[in-house]
Fold:
Amino acid sequence: MTDAVITLTDEPPEIDADLELLIDYKEEGSAARAFEIAAALIRALEDVDSVLAKSIDSSIQTALIVEDLQKSSIRIFLRNLLKAADDDALKTLDWKPLVGQYLVKGKYAALRWLDQDASTENPPRITDLTEEIAHLARQSDVRHLPDYPAPNSARLVQSLEAIQAVKRRFHPGEGLTITLGKMDYKVQIDKDWSPTDLVKDASGPKELVNEQELYLLLHKIDMLGGTQWTFKLGKTSIRAPIEDADWKAEYAARKVSLLPGDALHVILRIEQHYSERGELIETKHSIKRVLAVIPQSPPNGELFHQ
Structure:
């Protein structure tokens, strides 16, 4: 077992880092305060990542590890360590870069949201931030599914409060620059308002339900009439019962011909259930309506690449 080493250097680093923190602080007195600020900020950003990752997959775990540290001010290079309980559930050969890019964009959105002017007449809305993060999760397309939930508002506010608490520890004239990917962001230290005080809609939902019109490739047919069917959407497998009684009656009467490799044009219902802490614990799919059956090798070959 080897000991971890942190080096102090003035040389330009060649480091594969996802995140860089530059803390400009006044050098009078002990430097411990600057390192305490850095530690608190890293913990706060780790918590933000933990909340954001739940929009991709509830099993993803995140951690920020130190890649390097430089003196003259404090410059810390961090890399995001990602792992999931079930990589197969993500159905992507290399999902970590996609999730890493999403976490960078999500943290940037959170920092920008916190740097708004907050007033009692027009306070920032947490729903603006959660909707933006949900949009970023959908753009990542890690799971090739439309059911990327917005982060739980209550949990996200807790993480944002931790960042604001770090801002309050800076002295006048000091500064914080965060480099996310290739983007340098100078944090507005003076914007240290409390999200908990101003955000009134921070209670997170315990259940989210939405319906999407999709094309699902048939993988396994339900031969018993009461179990779940198996479909493919991109590289992702979906197991879902068909709840369209009229269509099921036609299928049972052999008025509908189906073979594996055919596709169904459906209305898919997606239910997401949360724990008391606002963490996604279960996702259920069901087919509310079957709109059409599309035989294998349809004329529009691009249909399933959309």
